[in-house]
Fold this sequence. Notes:
mainly alpha; 2 domains
Amino acid sequence: xxxxxxxxxxxxxxxxxxxxxxxxxxxxxxxxxVTLLWWNLGFVAVGALLGWWRGRTVEGIVWSVVLGPIGWIxxxxxxxxxxxxxxxxxxxRR
Length: 94
């Protein structure tokens, strides 16, 4: 923890008015953004594949973007999409 605080406070004057901004930017520079981007693209690809398999490609992509792997569960739990080539069911008789 002490090392993280040292990295966050590196080059920051605690008395300056913009010290918070510098500390925030130092903390954000420690985040592995490229790795997080690739993981997110992987989550979206799997979500698109699951959505395509269930007949809801766009829904699979959206849930994966919003919730990541938890969105996969939502796509799998929801009922399959209707096939566009089959007509809707007829109403019941009275």
